[in-house]
Amino acid sequence: MASEELYFRRADLFSDESEGLPPETYALRVLGLNPYDLNDRFTLHNHLGFTAQAREAFYVSCWYLYKEGLETLDMWEAYGQDGVAICTRYELLHDALNGFQDDAHLGRVQYGSDHLTDRFNGMEFIFTKQLKYASECEVRALITSYDPLESGNRHFDLDNHPHPRPLTMNPRNPWVPDSKRRRIDLRSLVTDVVISPWAEADAVEEIGLWVRSKGFAFSAKGSELTNPATPSLAEWKKHKQFFSKLPQDSVVVEMTEATRSELDQFSKKISTLPLERLRWIYNQRWDILRLCAGDIPRLSDAQYLEAILRILDDRKKRGTSVG
């Protein structure tokens, strides 16, 4: 409101680490890879690592697709506890993006993977999120800004092994910004300003002054959830597990269990590898589990990590220092 600009955040800096990346099960299927073959695993990491760098060219502005009667306290708590919702219409936002010099895109985010079209398409991935975010009903505006000197190989380590994410040892070029801002015609874009049901009286007054000072024909209005029955923010946080539409428990990603035959084949294959290579595979498996932060990782991934640990433990018992 102050600068009359839209703010776009670089996609790899969102809290969701899977932002703009395909689900691993989808990538394996589309690329025709065997998840239990080491060479195929390297191929998968190469594709994921490259895609993770490519998403750094996407700068995103996130909007909520409002439908009358579907305003939620979940969204107010997450994005505007004592603030406002700036409202527009799809065609007005589309027109604003058309006025940029950037390559700009606008569309609804789709959730899950059923809609994906059996191809490895970065633009499709950036408009896809996990099912657990479906209640956000996101409309996403983005601008693209590619680094012309980006190699696309920052996910390779010193041994030329690919990783599913760029490595800190290979920093991006320093001129790549974390965000971008673009000037807009505020009065042509904004149709309403809605005040949080938890906003304090002085905040409501300040918001009203902002709207008037910017010359809008409308006045700021209160949320449709503002009424005597609305819980306070403290009450909502304490009891929201009974009313929230968002999942409160960890999400089970996949409970597929590896068979004994598959585990034996895996153990046989890696037991002949040099210790350095075995450590690398262990770190890769550990990263897969770690990237499931907040979720329950796949049972099969835990089984394969256990198989590697058993081999390392066996070597340790035979007097080999495994680090």
Structural commentary:
It is a single chain. The protein is of the alpha/beta class and 323 residues long. It contains eleven helices and twelve strands. Helix 5 (122-126) links the parallel strand 5 and strand 6 (128-129). A five-stranded antiparallel beta sheet has the order 4-7-2-1-8, covered by helices on one side. Strands 3-9-10 form a three-stranded mixed beta sheet, covered by helices on one side.
Order of strands across the biggest sheet?
4-7-2-1-8
Secondary structure: number of strands: 12
- Give the end-to-end Cα distance, rounded to a whole number of Å: 55 Å
Helix-strand topology string = EHHEHEHEEHEEEHEHEHEHHEH
Radius of gyration: 24 Å
Alpha-beta content class: alpha/beta
Arithmetic mean of pLDDT: 87
Tertiary shape: elongated
Oligomeric state of the chains in view: single chain
Task: Estimate the strand proportion.
Answer: 15-25%
Name the helicity range: 25-40%
For the largest beta-sheet, the strand count, sense and barrel status come to: 5 strands, antiparallel
Q: Please report the number of helical segments.
A: 11
Q: Uncertain regions: pLDDT < 50 for 5+ in a row?
A: 249-254
How would the blueprint of this fold be written?
Blueprint: E1 5-10, H1 24-31, H2 38-54, E2 58-64, H3 73-79, E3 84-87, H4 90-98, E4 103-108, E5 110-111, H5 122-126, E6 128-129, E7 138-144, E8 179-183, H6 186-189, E9 192-195, H7 201-213, E10 221-222, H8 233-239, E11 251-252, H9 260-270, H10 275-290, E12 295-296, H11 299-317
Parallel strand pairs: 5-6, 9-10, 11-12
Antiparallel strand pairs: 1-2, 1-8, 2-7, 3-9, 4-7
Helix pairs in contact: 9-11, 10-11
